[in-house]
Amino acid sequence: MLALRSALFNTLFYANLILQMVVLTPVYFLLPRKKAWIVPKTWARTNHWLMRVVAGTDFTVEGLENLPADGIYILAPKHQSFWDVYALLPALPDPFFILKKELMRIPLFGWYVAKQRMVPVDRSARGRAMAAVLERAKAEMATGRQLIIYPEGTRRPPGAPPEYKFGVARLYRDLGVPVVPVAMHPGLFWPRKSLMRHPGHFTVRILPPIQPGLKPDLFLETLIRETEAASDALLVKTVSDNPHLPLPETARARLAVLAERKADVS
C-alpha cells in the first residue's frame, strides 16, 4: 500500500507541476512580479493538499509570530528534501533565493525565477561572484524581501551531524538583517534519493530571529546551537508521534546519543 500511495503521489505531483505550468504560465507572466507569486504559491498549496490526501502526510507550522514584521530577514531552514524547497513559500510575502547561474538557463524554469529577480551566482568567479551576490541581495532586501538560504548548503539526512557553511555568516554580517532559523524533519517522510512518501505528521518550528550585530563566528555558533537544539527536540517528538517510520541510520544514531544524554542527566 505504501508503494502504491507513493507512486500515485509522485505521479500526481509532477502532473500538477506540468499542468500548472501549462495552464498558469500566461497568468504568471502577465501579472506584475509580486502579484505573480500567486502561481508558485498555489502550486505549493496544492502539493500540500496532495501530500495530505494521497500520501497521508501533514504538518504544522509553529512560530510564525517570530518572523520580523517588516519582512526583511534571512530565513535559514534545515534542508532535508525537495519538500522544503517550496513548502514555506505561502507563508512568506516576497521571498528570493540565491541560486546557481546555470539554473537560469533552463527553459521556462529559468524564466520563472528571472521574473522573480532571484539572485544568480557564478561559482567560477569566486570572490567577484560573492561581491556581486551581496550587491544584488542588498538591493532586493531594500524593497522588503526575504532571502531563503540553507545554511548547510545541500540536503542532509535527518539526524546527520551539522555541516553549516560560513557563507551564511558572511551574509548575516554584510546584509545586517536578522536571521530566522527553522527546524523540521520532512526528510523522515520525503527521504532524499527515495521514491517513498511516508504518512504521518511533523512540525515545522520557526525560531526567534538572531538579531544583527554579532561577530560572524559567534553568530554561526549561535545559529548552529539554536537550530540543532530545536532539531533534536523535534526529532524525538516526530519519531515518538510516528513510530511506524523507517529511520535512516543517521536518525537512529542521533536518537541513541540523545537517549544516552537523558539517562546521564537522570
Condensed summary:
The chain is of the alpha/beta class.
Describe the structure.
The chain is an alpha/beta fold and 266 residues long. It has two domains: 1-55; 59-94 and 144-265, 3-Layer(aba) Sandwich (Glycerol-3-phosphate (1)-acyltransferase). It is 47% helix and 13% strand. The chain contains eight helices and seven strands. A seven-stranded mixed β-sheet has the order 1-7-6-2-5-3-4. Helix 1 packs antiparallel against helix 2 and helix 6 packs across helix 7 (216-241).
Number of domains: 2
What is the CATH superfamily label of the largest domain? Glycerol-3-phosphate (1)-acyltransferase
What is the CATH class of the largest domain? Alpha Beta
Work out the helix count: 8
Name the beta content range.
5-15%
Rg is 19 Å
Helical fraction: 40-55%
Indicate the CATH architecture of the largest domain: 3-Layer(aba) Sandwich
Low-confidence stretches: none
For the largest sheet, list the strands in their spatial order: 1-7-6-2-5-3-4
Biggest sheet overview: 7 strands, mixed
SSE series? HHEEHEHEHEHEEHH
C-alpha termini separation: 41 Å
The assembly state of the depicted protein chains is: single chain
Class from helix and strand fractions:
alpha/beta
Q: Per the principal axes of the C-alpha atoms, what is the gross shape?
A: globular
Report the count of strand segments: 7
The average pLDDT value, as a whole number, equals 94
- Write down the CATH topology of the largest domain: Glycerol-3-phosphate (1)-acyltransferase
